Amino acid sequence: MTRFGVEPTADPSAMICMDPPRYGFAGLPPNEHVTAFRVPVSAFAIADAHRRQTYHKDTRIHAWHHLPTPAEEQ
């Protein structure tokens, strides 16, 4: 998760890796709130990248994959 700006030793990272996980992010000090937000977002990003490589490799059948970029719209 370091590529998302979250160290594995940060409190929110350690909390979610416990068995069973602790989810009391709201009880963390205010300076940890951004890190606490990044932990689940980074987990979802990793899972989504895996899903795309595993299940949707070379298939882009949904319409939103073919939307024009802002440069193409001009």
Automatic annotation (TrEMBL):
Top-level taxon of the source organism: Bacteria
Pfam families per UniProt: DUF5958 (PF19383)
InterPro entries: DUF5958
The protein, known as: DUF5958 family protein
Organism encoding this protein: Streptomyces albidochromogenes
Classification lineage: Bacteria, Bacillati, Actinomycetota, Actinomycetes, Kitasatosporales
